[in-house]
Amino acid sequence: MEEELLRGAVGPLLAWFCTHRRDLPWRHDRTPYTALVAELMLQQTRVEAVRERYVQFLRAFPTAEALAAASEEEVLKLWEGLGYYSRARNLHRAAKVIAQNGFPSTFEGVRALPGVGDYTAGAVCSIALGLPEPAVDGNVLRILSRLYADASNVDEGATKAKYAALLRAVYPPETSDFCEALMELGALVCVPNGAPTCEECPWRTLCRAHLAGREEAFPVRSEKRARRIVNATVYVLQCGGKYALEKRPARGLLAGLWQFPFFEGDAPGFGQLLAEKRAKHVFTHVEWHMTGKRVDVAEEIAPYTWVTAQQLREKYALPSAFRPFLEWVK
Ligand code: ADE
After folding, report:
1. Last residue of a domain, one of 181, 198, 217
2. How far is it, in rounded angstroms, from Cα 82 to Cα 124?
3. Are residues 128 and 157 in the same domain?
4. Measuring from atom 7 of ligand 1, which residue has the nearest CA?
5. What is the spatial distance between Cα 271 and Cα 307, in angstroms, rounded to a whole number?
6. Which of the listed residues 129, 180, 191 should we mutate to test ligand 1's pocket, taking the one with most ligand atoms within 8 A of CB?
7. Is residue 78 assigned to a domain?
8. What is the domain range of residue 143?
9. Do residues 210 and 235 both lie within one domain?
10. How far apart are CA 244 and CA 255, in angstroms?
11. How far is CA 187 from the centre of its chain?
12. What is the CATH number of the domain that holds 249?
């Protein structure tokens, strides 16, 4: 594909970004470490869900050294509800590497940090290190496939590689603004769900999809695979002022996080049922269809960990899937 179209789109995009950039917490007092935290938090997660959590996380761990010195339980607690918890574990490991060796100064060095893929490495390098390294995420694929009216499947690695090469060829000296402007256009104008607001777009006279009136024909994607349905029973067991928790297995979905006693398929009965409610939680590849059961029990049954409501709030990272049942924890 010709670079000229994209080269001509850089100036209008940067000018638009100057006046339309959102005031987001990670855009203040940026260091390579804070940029890494932000980009990891923002993977697969909406800006609005991250805003406040980013501030809290950096208040607790303002530097890589502070994060490196924390326990895994503390880090997971601050990640509670954000999902994709391996990001938190990887960030913790990355902080230990950075505290030891300093922040890497090259793309290869950043890419070698735990949990950092091509996208995050590109974003951190562009945003915080001034390096012209493309960061191609879903937003960038959407705006570029529309700009070029390109019917290549964006779920294929080759398409991503093609756009990365194209971006690399036109990267301006304002690496940080360029990287974030691409994301911003995808977030504010050329939006992921629903119709883009093309009349506000700095590329409205350049965009081939728009000029053809076909913006919603792009990006072209693979068909999504149906999610697997898991039926489960979740017990909120109460004994005196304490509640039963268990740790999830070390591998797989929500690995190593805490949960209420959880049974796929058949479940035992623990005693007299006080309340019952249904709740659904949608993960990337699985849906949990849960029946929550509130039960008082006479003793602190093994092998569970029994904690007070306050301990649960302050110390134990409970994934959002279980939030619907927290109304029973007082
Ligand atoms: N999504 C991913 N990185 C982002 C950033 N730096 N600003 C806004 N949205 C983003």
Report:
1. 217
2. 20
3. yes
4. 180
5. 19
6. 180
7. yes
8. 4-217
9. no
10. 18
11. 15
12. 3.90.79.10
**Is 295 a domain residue?**
yes
What angle do helix axes 157-170 and 3-20 make, rounded to 10 degrees? Answer: 80
Query: Of 313, 247, 237, 232, which is closest to residue 275 (Cα–Cα)?
Result: 237
Position 1 scores a pLDDT of 83
21-66: per-residue pLDDT in tens? 999 999 999 999 999 999 999 998 999 999 999 999 999 999 999 9
**How far is the CA of 127 from the CAs of 23, 90, 252, in angstroms?**
15, 20, 32
Give whole-number Cα distances, 254 to 225, 228, 286, in Å: 21, 16, 12
Q: CB–CB of 320/81 below 8 Å?
A: yes
Q: 184 and 249: one domain? A: no
What is the amino acid identity at position 133?
Answer: E
On whether both 205 and 268 belong to a single domain, the answer is no
Tell me which amino acid residue 277 is. K
pLDDT in tens, 107-151: 999 999 999 999 999 999 999 999 999 999 999 999 999 999 999
Does the CB atom of residue 180 touch ligand 1 within 6 A? yes
Catalytically annotated residues: 39
State if residue 206 touches ligand 1 by the CB under 6 angstroms criterion: no
In the chain, how many domains are there? Answer: 2
Question: 3-state class of 286 per DSSP?
Answer: strand
Q: Are residues 195 and 263 in the same domain?
A: no
The residues, any chain, with a CB within 8 Å of residue 329's CB and separated by 6 or more, are 236, 243, 309, 312
Rounded to two decimals, the pTM is 0.91
Spatial contact of 308 and 242, defined as CB atoms under 8 Å apart? yes
Q: Has residue 224 got a pLDDT over 90?
A: no
15 in a domain, yes or no? yes
